[in-house]
Amino acid sequence: MNGTGIGHWESGIAIPSEARDLLCVTRGRPQVRSRRSLVASLLGLTWGAALLGMTWAATALPAQTQMPTYVIRGGTVVPVVGAQIPNGTVVIQNGKIQAIGANVQAPQGATVIDATGLFVYPGMIDAGTDLGLVEIGSVPGSTDTREIGDFNPQDVALTAVNAHSELIPVSRVNGVTTVITSATGALMSGSAALVDLWGWTPDEMAVKPRAAQVMSYPSAGGGGRGGGGGFGNRPAGDAAETVSRQVRALRDFLADARSYADVKAKAAANSPDAARVNQAMEALIPALRGEEPVIFDVNSVEQIRGVLTLADSFKLKVIIRGARDAWRLADTLAARGIPVIVGPTTQAPGPDDPYDALYAQPGVLAKAGVKIAFQTSGASDVRNLPYNAALATAYGLDMDEAIKALTINPAQIFGVADRLGSLEPGKAANVVVTTGNPLDVRSNVKYLFIRGQAVPLTDRHTKLYEQFRARPKP
Amino acid sequence: MTNTRERGTGNREPLSFRAARRGILGVPGEWRAARLGQQGFLAALGMTVMVATALGAQQATPPAAPPNAPALDLSAVSLPIPAAGRLVAITNATIMTASGATIPKGTIVIRDGKIAAVGADVAVPAGAKVIDGAGKYVTPGIIDAHSHSAAEAINEGTLSITSMVRIEDVLRQDGVSLYRQLAGGTTTLNILHGSANTIGGQNAVVKLRYGLPVDSLLFEGAPPGIKFALGENVRQTNRQLQPGQEGRFPRTRMGVEDLLRDAFTRAQEYRREWQQYETKRKAATTAAARSALIPPARDLELDALVEVLEGKRLVHCHSYRADEILMMLRVAKDFGFRVATFQHVLEGYKVADELAKAGSGASTFADGWAYKMEAWDAIPFNAALMAERGVVVTINSDSDERARRLYQEAAKAMHYGGASEQEALKMITLNAAKQLGIDKRVGSIEVGKDADLAIFTGHPFAPNSRVDMTLIDGRVFFDRATSPTLEQLIEQMRNRVRPRVTSEEQ
């Protein structure tokens, strides 16, 4: 799978017919449309969902070979990296941001989007989901979020991402364009994928097929995603013993994998065919080399300290996620340059914590110098990512920092800041045009681009809404 | 049949007596009568504090001056009991009344726990405690139409009909959770029985009078209600039966309808028996004739259902799919009662006209979906679309956590489906009061209503606004300035761990 995502990235993916139709792009070549008709068709795209099925069938076009060029003009451009540009222009060409600035010439033949009174942001990144791996939580046949066993580092989340999940279009509507998705709950749950929310296949969606290993650190607290360990409700008596046994197992597994890597390297030097392959340990080699980060789903101080010790022992590049107690170690985490993925902020704090602990923690971490990102930690709630961050801004997180935590920070944390996370020339055109601050529930997303494709803002929900809004009075 | 509730509870002593016996109050229960008596609730509330703190006192002191009582340590977070809202003025604030226009820069005067005046040109009375509202927004206290807080147990799921059990009997001050809801501007909760069975237990409407004795939580005069439930939960679809355990009837949505019709048929017969008995008793002129009469056996389960039939008990019906909503409406119509609210009602948008016609309210989530099969057609446009069709809609929490940020949830009705700001605010205030039958008392900022208010640092729907202060009956029950925050805790910890190095040690 290596490089597949990148290959598709470079070439761009074919534009699904619904988007082509709605953008009124004709046979293989983008057609310049009058501003009004484009806006009208894009608006129709949002609300005219009920009619879509017929429209597709009637006007389906063959796959096009060239990607359209867009010019977003007149809006307040928030590049995230660099200052806001009032009345700025963003040019999208061949799936990338071609230019951004106050005085940018529109290329010939570009489709113009009038963003007067609107705001232009980079797409947001949710740093913890199981999107694509689950459709309906309580229906076992629709969930691929938890494999049997505690050690499954060889499992690859991307394998099971359903590119046509109904939850994916729903996740986009408030400006999320990219997510980390993975199984969770085991001590080693396998590799997480960083995917854009657009593509015909998982490979086409992938930005980084193996973005990180996902692990948890045992805890006596048990239960729940991010709680660490997969051992549920054990009697209190043996909880401590269970934790120490699991910590030992985790260390042993990593130590074995390290030995495996050493032996393999030596064997390979002598006779390349000699080494037997152990899938699980093979999968851990990039993490043990520090090439692939390891996400640890943890909450308590004890767990976080345990992770720091593991990081030292095995030279792991760790990312702390969930991390209810991270504020207690803010200075340590900042000094060691360990990023923290916070959230969801829409959880109750621990019973002994202040009422605003989870709301205030992102601000505390950011002020201490910790690089933070946000997660919604699920699949059906991804669209609430910006509102998770909003709660943090009400309790001390600076608004600009919050925007960074939703864009450039996760891109940096997962090593894709050269491609994602801000509006800069050469980066992927994951672009969101909004009526206001995307953290404000009252704002709406007007246009959304992923890798330069104008993505319809329709989903299962808009379709049902239109359908039943049109129901005649009985 | 005028007094079914009395009959239903006749063998029980008043709640306050039991509470006293359990040692929660530590005093005989005279105070409760006083509390609900003519002296007015607020004065009595003050008295409650005094009585409750004067542990062991034999006589309740008559209410007098506002209490300056020491703190009651009833919870995880110990805070002073709020000063009585005798005369308070909130000045220079943007007042979102929920019932009328927003007042950009106005004053609210609170007298004896009630709103005495509100407007742009209202003078601050002499001697009033002034809360400076400059730059702030005041809304009515938020009402959560679906909560399971403050109760020790909520699901008597052993039988399919448990209309005899009462949340009121298991109310508790569950400490920090209530405080956290106050910190989100929430002041009133509809505490419902769980959804494990078709006909569940009786609800309790409470005000979040955090820190006061548990009986003080009850919203005095709120109409009684009961929880019904339909769909997957009562069918036990998502529950793993233990080996050897038999499934409980009903298992299908048809069975649920059957169960409801059977229960209400029995309730009708039971009512008839009592009516016949009462008629005969009144007709009996001699003592001998009277003693020859045997009253029907009392049935606490049917007592509650008779109250439903007589419109004295509000039905709050947990529901998801359109078909089961229509079924419940048919059953209610056939037996002559109105379903006060459909709870969750995630497919309510499919049958909004039927809901509006029946006069049933709808209390839904802002955007929860896909967590189970019957939540697959849930859409975030539900609230706005139902409101557009004339249904009285609320957005609820069903969660101690979500109840802390209902203002953000309400704003989603603007985001999805374009509800107006006023409509969205009503969905967590006035509409909830209407659904619970307490709109004469709470739900909007109007003269004469209880001074239950939330004061926000900015517009309640803005991303970076938070609640600064929450008042109930004019008393400040939450104040960010004096509340234990993470910032404070970190500051304390810093000071604690910072070593004091003296010159000698150096």
Q: Describe it for me?
A:
The complex is a heterodimer of chains A (474) and B (506). Chain A is an alpha/beta fold. Chain A has helices at residues 4-11, 17-23, 35-47, 52-59, 167-172, 202-205, 239-270, 279-288, 301-314, 330-335, 357-368, 385-393, 399-406, 408-413, 460-469, and strands at residues 70-77, 85-93, 96-101, 111-114, 119-122, 124-129, 176-181, 188-196, 206-216, 294-298, 318-322, 340-342, 372-374, 431-434, 445-450, 453-454. In chain A, strands 1, 2, 3, 4, 5, 14, 15 and 16 form an 8-stranded mixed β-sheet that branches. In chain A, helix 7 (239-270) packs across helix 8 (279-288), helix 11 (357-368) crosses helix 12 and helix 12 (385-393) runs antiparallel to helix 13. The model of chain A is unreliable at 1-64 and 222-235 (pLDDT under 50). Chain B has 506 residues and is an alpha/beta fold. In chain B, 30% of the residues lie in helices and 18% in strands. In chain B, helix 7 (253-283) packs across helix 9 (300-309). The longest helix of chain B has 31 residues, at 253-283. The chains are: A alpha/beta (474), B alpha/beta (506).
Short description:
The complex is a heterodimer of chains A (474) and B (506). Chain A is an alpha/beta fold and 474 residues long. Chain A contains 15 helices and 16 strands.
